[in-house]
Amino acid sequence: MRPGSRWYAVGSDNYDRLMGSDPIGVIFSEYSLGDPSAWDYIRPILAENGGWAIFLYTPRGRNHGYTLYNMACGNEAWFCELLTIEDTKHISADDVEAEKRAGMQEDMIKQEFWCSFTAGASGAYYGELMETARKEGRIGAVPYDPQYSLEAWLDLGWDDATALWAVQPAGLTLRAVKYMEFKTRSIPSICAEIRKSGLKFDLIRTPHDGEAHEQGTGRTRKEMWEDGLGCVAEASPRPKNADELLEQINGVRSLVPVTWFDAVGCEAGIFALESYRREWDSKLVKYKTTPLHDWSSHGADAFRTGAARHVVGRYGSEERRGVRKPRVLSAARERGRFGLRRRQPAYFKEE
Fold this sequence. Notes:
Nucleotidyltransferase, domain 5; seven-stranded mixed sheet; disordered C terminus
């Protein structure tokens, strides 16, 4: 480094602190575990400054680290290399065998010592299920289809991102057509951006804090989402303990095998589901029963919000009939959400 240079240590979940700092170079340590949004925010600054970036990491399944590696391999403007223990010679085969005898799993050995992208993220809740989805071709082109109803599955946040999955139930399957994240954005501004995308939602599923009242307006967040997107909202139950949380996570596990994901529109959400994992207890040298809270939590929790109330092939207590308006109209009337207090959206009216 040149005399007078400065360096900063910043977490990828706090990349906003770098805005306006004008860095020349950025090193992403363990990039496959960090928030991929950090690179998208930093790269315009480096492009303007003629700067550089270095990404150092061990694979964690086929997440954003895998995507970056494939891109760099085929881009002459990038330098890329994958080094296993056979290349570095830092760890001997005897050492690896000793770790195996001590109980290290085969997938972990492939990942840590041979840089395998197919081993799956260690401790991941949905890693293997998402890998199966890739093998079965359920991650590809899944465009929004107006013939199916559209649901918004949410995780609410401010400093932490607000995450939204746009999901279309289609018979016994789900179509995840879009994933979006919004940071430090109000509900009205988020809804305004969503409306510009052309997506027309029929149902919103919020987490339990959707019932909380906003101090400035005295209205619940759920009501603000209803007004912003013009459809009825339901709050999913809050898990009361670790067992109920695991039950909801298992609900996601039951839905992933019947879900088709749009590879482009849901890329960040797919990365989140692949990376969502249990927290590691370094003292007991084992995984805890609770999830690690990091960047991947927002997308995974949003999907869990929907899974907690979703019944495959059904809408609430009504059977899916393949008809859009009657289901939404019935739900709105049943809950009285669009009485005299608010103007009834046009698509709730009788034909």
